[in-house]
Amino acid sequence: MALVMRTGTVLTRVRRVPRPFVPSLESRVRGRTVLITGASSGIGRQLAIRVAGAGAIVLVTARRADLLDDLVRVIRGAGDCAAAIPGDLASDDGINSIADAVLTKYGAPDVLVLNAGRSIMRTLAESEFRLHDFERTVRVNYLGAVGLLLRFLPGMSARRSGQVVHTSSITVPIHGARFSAYVASKSALESVLNVAAVEHLNDGVRFTSVRLPLVETEMIAGADWTGFARLTTEEAVEMIVDAIRRQPRQLDHPVSAVGRLLYGVAPRMADRVQSYFHTRMENLIQ
User: Fold this and answer.
1) Pick the catalytic residue: 106, 182, 263, 276?
2) Helix, strand, or coil here: 203?
C-alpha cells in the first residue's frame, strides 16, 4: 500500500504535455458566450476569470447573488465581459429562470460548463434514514444540470455548434467509497451526456466530462490527504480549459485513467486498493 500511496502522490502532479496544434482557448471562446454554473466560488469563479480573459462573454450563475456580483465587478474591472444570472438549480423554477434569462438575451450558450454540485461524504451504513442525502445531491448534480441541458440543446443543435462541459469526478470509474450519492449523480450525468453525444454526433455539438480529483480548498484543510489525488484550483481550471480547447468526449485525470485500467484487468485488486483508502479516510474524519 505504500507503493500505491507514492504512485498516487506522483500522479496528482503529472503535468500535461503542451499541445501546440490544438486550438487555443482564445480561438474557442473569443466573442462567444460561456455559461458557467456554480460560479460564485472555487473552480467556477476562477474558470470565469480565465475564459473572460480569453475574450469570452461570460455568464455566471449560482445561488449567492452577492458573490456573483463581486465576480462580475472583478471581470469587468479587467476590461472583460461578464453578466450575473442568479438562480437555484435545485428547483424547476430556478432552472427555468436561469434558462429563460440566458435564452432571451443571449440565445443558447456556445459553451455550457456544468460545474455546480453538492458533495456528501457518508457511508451507506451511515445513511440508513438519510434518503434525502441522495435526493438533494441528485437534484443539483444531475437533475439541475439536465434541466439546463434540455433547455439549451435545441438552440445549440439548430446552430450546429456548441460544447457542454461537465466537471465530473475520478470517483466515477473507481467507485469512491463514502461518496455513493455523489458518485451516482455524477455517473448519471455522464451517461446522459454520452447518449447526447451519439444523438447529436452530426450536429456539431460536443460533450465532455472532465474527471477531476479532490481539489484543494478550505473544505479539505486541516487533514492529511497524502496519497489522495488532488489538485489546486488553478490546476483544475487548466484541466477544464484543456477540455474546451480539445473537445474530447472524456478527459481523465491520470489517477482516474489508472483506476479504470486496474478495474478492467484486476477488479478485485482495485477493490482492495479502494478499501485501503476508505479505511484511511475513516481515520481522517475521526
Assistant:
1) 182
2) coil
Name the residue among 236, 229, 234 with its Cα closest to residue 281: 229
Closest CA to 102 of 42, 26, 156: 156
Q: What are phi and psi of 61, to 5 degrees?
A: -135, 145
pLDDT computed for residue 6 by the predictor:
45
Average pLDDT, the chain: 89
Q: How far apart are alpha carbons 283 and 286 in whole angstroms?
A: 5
Q: Catalytic annotation on 276?
A: no
For residues 122 and 133, the answer to whether their CB atoms sit within 8 Å is yes
CA 218 to chain centroid, in Å, comes to 18
Pairing of strands 250-252, 205-212: parallel
For the chain, the structural domain boundaries read 2-7+24-118+128-285
pTM over 0.85: yes
CATH class of this structure's domain 2-7+24-118+128-285: alpha beta
8 A C-beta contact, residue 111 and residue 33? yes
